[in-house]
Design brief:
Chain lengths: 248, 248
DNA sequence: CGCAGATTTGAGATCTGTCAAGGGATGTGG
DNA sequence: CCACATCCCTTGACAGATCTCAAATCTGCG
């Protein structure tokens, strides 16, 4: 089994043991693939499964009866989809693939069982869940309290930093597989206004469309433009005394 | 020890045993009180503790350098503050009491330890975390994709339904301890506009200010006004097969 | 009484949405 | 190869929503 982004992320925690990883690997046996536009999770669908995104981009969203849609967050390799599936009867959200994607999928009950027997893995999963919640917090603040163009620049930087941490991008720039319609649904604005904001950033030479791809040109200036502080993305190690408690 | 809102909430799950509750009670020994306006958690503060709100209202927020502020969610009795504290070095958010409040407080490491030894409690806590995330999701959709007055009506209903479930309100109406400034920071609008939306709802006889208190007059019409669907607040029981996995 | 905080309102500037239309790229079927 | 459809990006014009600035009222409190 190849080393997945999740493995890499967990290994950085520096306290999981081989048998913890064995328990994880046992979950990740079954694979699924999705192509761009495929639904991984349908809204209102019964959720008995959990996914680990191994490769590709997906996003989680809610849609309204009248067609409006709100993107909640983006999931990149190493992210977990449906961590709470075992606890929730139905999903309130949908998950769709942006790029071709590979996922590991398993019954949520198996996750619960695994966590119940490997407390260090439990700690690690909680840490991942905590990371996810911090990004949801920031999405709320972004949509609620930032100006439209700053919202966009801020989102770009969040994704850039996440890609950097995953080794999927270079320091200077990132390429994002996002359409302006998707951006507008993420940032809570019309697609026309999303285009206006994007064009503004383009004229400022901060971003560009090259061969139909969204390219970040100057992440430093973007950060300044957005008032971006990557603190909420820091994957700080767990304090040692917390780990001590789990030396079974 | 009196039966807390958290106990009541967990008891409704119908699968926790006495020893699970014992483990919980062991955590809840130490109490804190806060008065209106007190900070329970400071932004940027080191977080080694977790709180269980026993009584009163608090809210969680992020603030910007320039004074802007975004409320992320409201916490009512039975809610947990800092569930991920053990994993995160610093808090990215603050927590402030709206009303006089009583909280149980304990080192986050104790929570981890307790969860590692009582898998059913782990499942229950994950369930609570899942509830919390569903409300964050809805807050994103509310702020991102609803019109201002609908945002407000929608928030009112979320709080009303939560109060109902807690037995802290009557079916017909609720009284909310929120100022319009706080509402504006929750809904992502200026306090002037919050007032205008509120006045609109007032003129429609859906809400009122009585003796300085925010009163919901007609939750049925409010729900219609907001396109409110309480589905995301349903605390559905865990499927039986999930629980089976934990019959140790 | 004076002060601080909360609510309320008006006026004008600015932001954002809707409607409408056009262009470019891509893919499919004939 | 062309005709056509589809999807995405782009722009202009106008209407409507929302923000900022400013000021007035009210309440509770010391």
């Amino acid at each position: 089994m190849t080393e997945s982004a999740l493995h890499h992320r967990l290994r950085a925690l520096n306290y999981l043991r081989d048998d913890d990883f064995d328990a994880l690997d046992a979950l990740l046996k079954h694979r699924e693939t999705a192509t761009s536009g495929d639904l991984v999770v349908m809204e209102e669908q019964d959720m008995h499964r959990t996914w680990v995104l191994l490769d590709g981009w997906t996003f989680r969203y809610k849609s309204f009866e009248d067609g409006r849609r709100q993107v909640l967050n983006y999931m990149l390799p190493g992210d977990i989809i449906g961590l709470y599936s075992a606890m929730l009867r139905r999903s309130d959200y949908g998950v769709e693939a942006i790029t071709p994607a590979t996922l590991a999928v398993f019954p949520s009950t198996e996750l619960i069982e695994a966590l119940a027997h490997t407390p260090r893995l439990l700690l690690a999963m909680s840490w991942i869940a905590g990371q996810g919640e911090r990004m949801l917090d920031e999405q709320i603040a972004r949509v609620g309290r930032r100006a439209a163009a700053e919202r966009m620049a801020h989102l770009f930087l969040e994704l850039h930093v996440r890609l950097l941490k995953l080794g999927l991008s270079r320091e200077a720039a990132s390429v994002l597989p996002l359409t302006q319609a998707l951006l507008s649904d993420t940032l809570g604005m019309s697609h026309v206004h999303a285009n206006r904001c994007f064009r503004t950033l383009t004229r400022e030479k901060l971003v560009a469309l090259r061969d139909g791809q969204l390219v970040l040109l100057d992440t430093g200036k973007l950060a300044q433009r957005a008032g971006f502080d990557a603190g909420y993305l820091e994957e700080s190690a767990v304090p040692l005394d917390t780990v001590q408690a789990l030396k079974t």
